[in-house]
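hiii so um. not sure if this is the right channel but i have a protein structure encoded as tokens and i wanna go backwards to a sequence. like what aa goes where. can anyone help
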């Protein structure tokens, strides 16, 4: 994926270097046209001056870096503009760069529930990552992912009305084999029944359905030893308990066009709400994804 780079020299032309970053709330407007630059060197959104100088590709998939102040602490400002027809939640991965342009670390920021036509602004401090004492001299957008707000995984806050949280982990990768686990957590007050396999639909970077991929049952239809195999048994997940199901695929590329499906819409059982997770399914040219049965969490040899 193309990355958007905003080097320090491009952002700080005439701007003040800062060693710390003031906290800001997403979407807070600046004081007015005459307001000074923000804590990260960004201009107020309604200022008449032109935006900070920098390469044209400092904007990526609706996300734009608007300011940066370097140093061991540093401060970066960005904005998210949503042009879709329904609210979306954005997760942005930023690369933190050294003087030489190498990646010191990366950090993720999530901007929730961005309404259509809305621009939301936020800041972050690179020192919040694991950079430590190394000087951060630039920041770039490495990846942007977005999901419908009403289908975003809910891993914190009040328990959803369904009584369960559904999300995916970062997965494991080895020798071309990929395994990502879907997790269900009963955060409600009633038992939750499962039987069988989650329903999974793959979508591409434009959120369009991916055609021509076979969705197979049982992880062993792609590879054994992943834990995502065995019979589909009825489960009762009590409050406080969890369950998991594995997604298994290979990214072997031979003849043909490789398939990359960042998004997967998941329904844990018939009648349940859809949740969109981001397993980054890189199928190569294999054309198949295996889905394992739901299992109680204690049946997994490793906490996935």
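sure thing!! here u go:
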């Amino acid at each position: 994926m193309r990355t958007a780079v905003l080097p320090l020299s491009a952002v700080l032309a005439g701007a003040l270097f800062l060693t710390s970053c003031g906290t800001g709330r997403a979407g807070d407007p600046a004081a007015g046209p005459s307001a000074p630059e923000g804590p990260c060197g960004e201009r107020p959104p309604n200022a008449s001056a032109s935006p900070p100088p920098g390469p044209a590709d400092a904007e990526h998939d609706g996300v734009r870096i608007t300011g940066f102040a370097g140093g061991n602490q540093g401060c970066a400002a960005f904005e998210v503009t949503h042009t879709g027809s329904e609210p979306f939640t954005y997760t942005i991965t930023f690369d933190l760069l050294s003087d030489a342009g190498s990646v010191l670390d990366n950090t993720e920021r999530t901007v929730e529930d961005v309404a259509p036509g809305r621009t939301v602004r936020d800041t972050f401090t690179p020192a919040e990552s694991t950079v430590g004492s190394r000087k951060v001299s630039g920041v770039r957008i490495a990846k942007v992912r977005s999901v419908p707000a009403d289908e975003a995984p809910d891993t914190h806050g009040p328990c959803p009305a369904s009584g369960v949280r559904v999300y995916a982990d970062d997965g494991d990768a080895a020798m071309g084999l990929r395994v990502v686990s879907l997790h269900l957590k009963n955060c409600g007050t009633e038992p939750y029944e499962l039987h069988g396999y989650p329903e999974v639909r793959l979508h591409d970077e434009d959120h369009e359905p991916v055609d021509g991929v076979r969705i197979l049952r049982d992880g062993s239809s792609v590879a054994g030893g992943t834990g995502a195999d065995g019979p589909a048994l009825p489960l009762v997940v009590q409050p406080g308990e969890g369950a998991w199901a594995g997604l298994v695929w290979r990214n072997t590329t031979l003849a043909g066009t490789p398939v990359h499906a960042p998004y997967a819409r998941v329904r844990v059982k018939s009648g349940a709400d859809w949740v969109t997770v981001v397993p980054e399914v890189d199928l190569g040219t294999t054309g198949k994804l295996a889905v394992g049965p739901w299992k109680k969490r204690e049946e997994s040899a490793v906490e996935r």
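oh and Confidence is low (pLDDT under 50) at residues 1-36, 47-57, 299-304.
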